[in-house]
Amino acid sequence: MRLLEYKGKELLNRYGVKIPRGGAIVKSLDDIKVLNTLKFPLFAKSQVPFAGRAKMGLVRRVDTIKDAENAARDYLGKVIQDYPIRKVLFEEGGLTWPRNFTYP
C-alpha cells in the first residue's frame, strides 16, 4: 500500500501517536490561512508517493507566510516522475534544520 505522508500521519494521530502539528494545502492561495494556526518555522513537504523528496528539492523550510505561499506555488502542479503534486504538507519543525541547509 502506498500512503502519502499526510495520510499516514492522520492514521498515526488517530491511534494516539504524537505527530508534528501541520496541515495539507491543496490550493496555494485558498488554503494558506490554515498556516495562521501554526508556529514558524515550518517545513513544506510535497506529497508524492516515493522517497528522496528532500534530495529532489521537494522539502523546504519556510520562515514566513510569504515563503509558504511561494513554496506552495512552486510545488503544486509540478510533475515528478510522472506523478503530479496535488498537496503540500506544512508542519511545525522547530529549529532542527538550518536555514541554508542543502544536501551534499
Question: What's a concise summary of this model?
Answer:
It is built from two helices and six strands. With 104 residues, it is α+β, with helices and mostly antiparallel strands. It has a domain at 24-92: 2-Layer Sandwich (Dna Ligase, domain 1).
Q: How would you describe this structure in keywords?
A:
104 residues; 21% strand; alpha+beta; 4-stranded antiparallel β-sheet; Dna Ligase, domain 1
How would you describe this structure to a colleague?
With 104 residues, this protein is α+β, with helices and mostly antiparallel strands. It has a domain at 24-92: Dna Ligase, domain 1, CATH 3.30.1490. Helices cover 20% and strands 21% of the residues. It is built from two helices and six strands; from the N terminus they run αβββαβββ. The protein has helices at 5-14, 65-75; strands spanning 22-25, 42-46, 59-62, 79-80, 83-84, 88-92. The strands form two sheets. Strands 1-6-2-3 form a four-stranded antiparallel β-sheet, covered by helices on one side. A two-stranded antiparallel sheet has the order 4-5. The longest helix is centred in the C-terminal third of the chain and has 11 residues, at 65-75. The chain is globular, with a radius of gyration of 13 Å. The model has no long low-confidence stretch (mean pLDDT 86).
